[in-house]
Protein backbone atom coordinates (compact mmCIF):
# COMPACT_ATOMS: atom_id res chain seq x y z
CA UNK A 1 0.00 0.00 0.00
CA UNK A 2 1.49 3.33 -1.04
CA UNK A 3 1.83 6.19 1.43
CA UNK A 4 -0.23 9.29 0.65
CA UNK A 5 1.29 12.60 -0.36
CA UNK A 6 0.15 14.26 2.87
CA UNK A 7 1.67 11.51 5.01
CA UNK A 8 4.97 11.69 3.14
CA UNK A 9 5.06 15.44 3.62
CA UNK A 10 4.42 15.00 7.34
CA UNK A 11 7.18 12.41 7.65
CA UNK A 12 9.72 14.68 5.98
CA UNK A 13 8.63 17.73 7.95
CA UNK A 14 8.79 15.96 11.32
CA UNK A 15 12.19 14.29 10.83
CA UNK A 16 15.12 15.46 12.95
CA UNK A 17 17.56 17.31 10.66
CA UNK A 18 20.25 18.14 13.21
CA UNK A 19 23.71 16.65 12.75
CA UNK A 20 25.22 15.55 9.45
CA UNK A 21 24.07 11.95 9.45
CA UNK A 22 21.74 11.03 6.58
CA UNK A 23 20.68 7.62 7.93
CA UNK A 24 17.03 8.76 7.97
CA UNK A 25 17.11 8.50 4.18
CA UNK A 26 17.76 4.73 4.22
CA UNK A 27 15.23 3.20 1.86
CA UNK A 28 14.16 6.63 0.59
CA UNK A 29 17.24 7.89 -1.27
CA UNK A 30 20.68 6.66 -2.29
CA UNK A 31 23.86 8.38 -3.41
CA UNK A 32 26.97 6.88 -4.91
CA UNK A 33 30.14 7.36 -2.87
CA UNK A 34 33.33 8.90 -4.31
CA UNK A 35 36.03 6.35 -5.18
CA UNK A 36 38.79 7.80 -3.00
CA UNK A 37 37.46 7.00 0.49
CA UNK A 38 37.74 10.37 2.22
CA UNK A 39 37.01 9.13 5.75
CA UNK A 40 39.69 6.44 5.52
CA UNK A 41 42.29 8.84 4.16
CA UNK A 42 41.34 11.41 6.81
CA UNK A 43 41.87 8.83 9.55
CA UNK A 44 45.29 7.95 8.17
CA UNK A 45 46.39 11.58 8.12
CA UNK A 46 45.08 12.31 11.60
CA UNK A 47 47.12 9.40 12.89
CA UNK A 48 50.39 11.06 11.82
CA UNK A 49 49.57 14.73 12.56
CA UNK A 50 50.69 16.65 15.64
CA UNK A 51 47.89 19.26 15.67
CA UNK A 52 44.69 19.13 13.59
CA UNK A 53 41.72 21.37 12.85
CA UNK A 54 38.49 20.15 11.25
CA UNK A 55 36.48 23.07 9.85
CA UNK A 56 32.65 22.99 9.74
CA UNK A 57 32.56 19.55 11.31
CA UNK A 58 28.75 19.29 11.38
CA UNK A 59 27.82 16.85 14.11
CA UNK A 60 31.32 15.37 14.01
CA UNK A 61 30.10 12.24 12.25
CA UNK A 62 32.92 11.91 9.72
CA UNK A 63 35.67 13.07 12.04
CA UNK A 64 34.58 10.56 14.68
CA UNK A 65 35.30 7.70 12.26
CA UNK A 66 39.04 8.27 12.78
CA UNK A 67 40.84 5.56 14.71
CA UNK A 68 43.12 8.02 16.52
CA UNK A 69 43.76 11.72 16.84
CA UNK A 70 46.85 13.88 17.27
CA UNK A 71 47.77 15.30 20.70
CA UNK A 72 46.02 18.56 19.77
CA UNK A 73 42.74 18.07 17.90
CA UNK A 74 40.13 20.80 17.35
CA UNK A 75 36.90 21.07 15.34
CA UNK A 76 34.75 24.11 14.53
CA UNK A 77 31.02 24.32 13.91
CA UNK A 78 28.51 27.18 13.66
CA UNK A 79 25.02 25.67 14.05
CA UNK A 80 24.04 25.21 17.74
CA UNK A 81 22.31 21.81 17.35
CA UNK A 82 25.40 20.49 15.53
CA UNK A 83 27.74 22.01 18.12
CA UNK A 84 25.94 20.03 20.82
CA UNK A 85 26.06 16.81 18.80
CA UNK A 86 29.71 17.26 17.85
CA UNK A 87 30.66 18.00 21.47
CA UNK A 88 28.93 14.87 22.74
CA UNK A 89 30.50 12.76 20.01
CA UNK A 90 34.04 14.19 19.92
CA UNK A 91 34.89 15.35 23.45
CA UNK A 92 35.18 11.76 24.72
CA UNK A 93 37.73 11.22 21.92
CA UNK A 94 39.83 14.19 23.07
CA UNK A 95 38.69 16.59 20.31
CA UNK A 96 37.82 20.14 21.42
CA UNK A 97 34.77 21.58 19.64
CA UNK A 98 34.83 25.37 19.16
CA UNK A 99 31.73 27.38 18.26
CA UNK A 100 32.68 29.49 15.24
CA UNK A 101 30.46 31.49 12.86
CA UNK A 102 32.24 30.26 9.69
CA UNK A 103 33.38 33.81 9.00
CA UNK A 104 37.01 34.95 9.02
CA UNK A 105 39.10 35.07 11.05
CA UNK A 106 39.39 31.57 12.44
CA UNK A 107 39.86 31.85 16.23
CA UNK A 108 43.37 30.37 16.20
CA UNK A 109 46.92 31.65 16.05
CA UNK A 110 49.02 31.64 12.90
CA UNK A 111 50.73 28.33 12.11
CA UNK A 112 48.75 26.50 14.82
CA UNK A 113 48.06 23.27 12.90
CA UNK A 114 50.00 20.97 10.62
CA UNK A 115 46.72 19.44 9.33
CA UNK A 116 43.50 21.30 8.48
CA UNK A 117 40.57 19.27 7.14
CA UNK A 118 36.97 19.71 6.07
CA UNK A 119 34.24 17.65 4.44
CA UNK A 120 31.75 19.63 2.36
CA UNK A 121 32.45 23.09 3.77
CA UNK A 122 29.75 25.62 2.88
CA UNK A 123 32.34 28.42 2.71
CA UNK A 124 36.08 28.19 2.07
CA UNK A 125 38.32 30.97 3.39
CA UNK A 126 41.64 30.12 1.74
CA UNK A 127 43.62 32.94 3.36
CA UNK A 128 42.54 31.76 6.81
CA UNK A 129 43.33 28.13 6.03
CA UNK A 130 46.82 29.16 4.88
CA UNK A 131 47.29 31.39 7.94
CA UNK A 132 46.60 28.69 10.54
CA UNK A 133 48.68 26.03 8.74
CA UNK A 134 52.31 25.51 9.67
CA UNK A 135 54.83 25.91 6.81
CA UNK A 136 54.67 22.57 5.01
CA UNK A 137 51.31 21.80 6.65
CA UNK A 138 48.43 20.28 4.67
CA UNK A 139 44.82 21.13 3.97
CA UNK A 140 42.95 17.91 3.09
CA UNK A 141 39.27 18.09 2.20
CA UNK A 142 36.37 16.80 0.17
CA UNK A 143 34.48 19.68 -1.43
CA UNK A 144 31.11 19.85 -3.12
CA UNK A 145 31.64 20.50 -6.81
CA UNK A 146 29.81 22.61 -9.41
CA UNK A 147 26.08 22.21 -10.13
CA UNK A 148 25.76 19.51 -7.48
CA UNK A 149 22.18 18.16 -7.22
CA UNK A 150 21.05 20.93 -9.56
CA UNK A 151 18.43 18.67 -11.13
CA UNK A 152 16.56 18.94 -7.80
CA UNK A 153 17.48 22.55 -7.07
CA UNK A 154 16.34 23.74 -10.48
CA UNK A 155 13.12 21.73 -10.21
CA UNK A 156 12.17 24.14 -7.43
CA UNK A 157 13.97 27.34 -8.44
CA UNK A 158 14.13 27.16 -12.22
CA UNK A 159 17.36 27.56 -14.24
CA UNK A 160 20.35 28.84 -12.23
CA UNK A 161 23.04 29.55 -14.84
CA UNK A 162 25.17 31.81 -12.61
CA UNK A 163 25.08 29.39 -9.67
CA UNK A 164 26.11 26.52 -11.94
CA UNK A 165 29.43 28.31 -12.44
CA UNK A 166 30.31 28.20 -8.73
CA UNK A 167 32.55 25.68 -6.94
CA UNK A 168 34.57 24.75 -10.01
CA UNK A 169 37.77 22.90 -9.07
CA UNK A 170 39.94 25.10 -11.28
CA UNK A 171 38.62 28.23 -9.56
CA UNK A 172 39.34 26.73 -6.14
CA UNK A 173 42.84 25.75 -7.21
CA UNK A 174 43.48 29.33 -8.33
CA UNK A 175 42.14 30.76 -5.06
CA UNK A 176 44.21 28.33 -2.99
CA UNK A 177 47.36 29.18 -4.92
CA UNK A 178 46.68 32.92 -4.49
CA UNK A 179 46.59 32.30 -0.72
CA UNK A 180 50.04 30.69 -0.83
CA UNK A 181 49.01 27.05 -1.00
CA UNK A 182 50.29 24.43 -3.42
CA UNK A 183 47.68 22.03 -4.81
CA UNK A 184 48.53 18.33 -5.13
CA UNK A 185 46.64 16.39 -7.85
CA UNK A 186 42.94 17.19 -7.23
CA UNK A 187 40.44 14.42 -8.05
CA UNK A 188 36.83 14.82 -9.18
CA UNK A 189 33.72 12.62 -9.29
CA UNK A 190 30.12 12.83 -10.54
CA UNK A 191 27.80 10.58 -8.54
CA UNK A 192 24.26 9.31 -9.12
CA UNK A 193 21.48 10.12 -6.62
CA UNK A 194 18.10 8.37 -6.59
CA UNK A 195 15.27 9.97 -4.59
CA UNK A 196 12.37 7.59 -4.11
CA UNK A 197 9.74 9.72 -2.37
CA UNK A 198 8.81 13.28 -1.57
CA UNK A 199 9.47 12.78 2.16
CA UNK A 200 13.16 12.48 1.30
CA UNK A 201 12.95 15.73 -0.66
CA UNK A 202 11.40 17.62 2.26
CA UNK A 203 14.02 16.20 4.62
CA UNK A 204 16.88 17.17 2.31
CA UNK A 205 15.65 20.70 1.67
CA UNK A 206 15.17 21.26 5.41
CA UNK A 207 18.64 19.92 6.17
CA UNK A 208 20.74 21.30 3.29
CA UNK A 209 19.26 24.77 3.59
CA UNK A 210 21.38 26.42 0.89
CA UNK A 211 19.93 24.25 -1.89
CA UNK A 212 16.59 26.09 -1.89
CA UNK A 213 17.06 29.11 0.40
CA UNK A 214 14.01 29.90 2.49
CA UNK A 215 12.41 26.53 1.74
CA UNK A 216 9.19 25.76 3.59
CA UNK A 217 6.66 23.04 2.86
CA UNK A 218 3.89 25.62 2.69
CA UNK A 219 5.78 27.85 0.27
CA UNK A 220 6.57 25.01 -2.14
CA UNK A 221 3.59 22.70 -1.61
CA UNK A 222 2.46 22.75 -5.24
CA UNK A 223 5.95 22.01 -6.55
CA UNK A 224 6.23 19.20 -4.01
CA UNK A 225 2.92 17.84 -5.26
CA UNK A 226 4.27 17.96 -8.83
CA UNK A 227 7.40 16.07 -7.79
CA UNK A 228 5.34 13.46 -5.93
CA UNK A 229 3.27 12.88 -9.07
CA UNK A 230 6.44 12.60 -11.18
CA UNK A 231 7.95 9.98 -8.86
CA UNK A 232 4.68 8.07 -8.71
CA UNK A 233 4.45 7.92 -12.51
CA UNK A 234 8.10 7.60 -13.58
CA UNK A 235 9.98 6.17 -10.61
CA UNK A 236 12.87 7.65 -8.60
CA UNK A 237 13.92 11.22 -9.26
CA UNK A 238 17.51 11.15 -10.57
CA UNK A 239 20.06 13.81 -9.71
CA UNK A 240 23.85 13.92 -9.61
CA UNK A 241 26.22 15.21 -6.96
CA UNK A 242 29.71 16.40 -7.78
CA UNK A 243 32.70 16.14 -5.47
CA UNK A 244 36.38 16.93 -5.56
CA UNK A 245 39.20 15.86 -3.30
CA UNK A 246 41.62 18.64 -2.43
CA UNK A 247 45.09 18.38 -0.95
CA UNK A 248 46.93 21.67 -0.54
CA UNK A 249 50.22 22.40 1.22
CA UNK A 250 51.35 25.66 2.71
CA UNK A 251 54.48 26.69 0.84
Could you please describe the fold and organization of this structure?
- It is a single chain.
- The chain is of the alpha/beta class and 251 residues long.
- It has a single domain, classed as Rossmann fold (3-Layer(aba) Sandwich).
- The protein contains 9 helices and 9 strands.
- Strands 1, 2, 3, 4, 5, 6, 7, 8 and 9 form a 9-stranded mixed sheet that branches.
- Strand 5, helix 4 (126-132) and strand 6 (133-144) form a beta-alpha-beta unit.
- Helix 1 packs parallel to helix 8 (198-207).
- The longest helix has 14 residues, at 221-234.
- The protein is globular.
- The termini are far apart.
Low-confidence stretches: none
CATH fold description: Rossmann fold
**Sheet having the most strands:** 9 strands, mixed
Name given to the CATH architecture = 3-Layer(aba) Sandwich
Q: What would you say about this model in short?
A:
The protein has helices at 5-14, 38-46, 80-90, 126-132, 150-157, 161-164, 169-178, 198-207, 221-234; strands spanning 29-31, 51-54, 72-77, 96-99, 113-119, 133-144, 181-183, 187-195, 237-250. The chain is of the alpha/beta class and 251 residues long. Pfam families: Methyltransf_11 (PF08241).
Spell out the key features of this protein:
251 residues, alpha/beta, Rossmann fold, nine-stranded mixed sheet, 9 helices, 9 strands, Methyltransf_11, SAM-dependent_MTases_sf
Amino acid sequence: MSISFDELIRLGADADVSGWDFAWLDGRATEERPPWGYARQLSDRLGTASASLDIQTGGGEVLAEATRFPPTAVATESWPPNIARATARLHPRGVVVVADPDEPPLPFAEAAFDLVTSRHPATIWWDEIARVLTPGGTYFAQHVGPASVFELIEFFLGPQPAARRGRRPDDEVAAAEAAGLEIVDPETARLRIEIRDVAAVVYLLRKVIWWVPGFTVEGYIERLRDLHALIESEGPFIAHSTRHLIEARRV
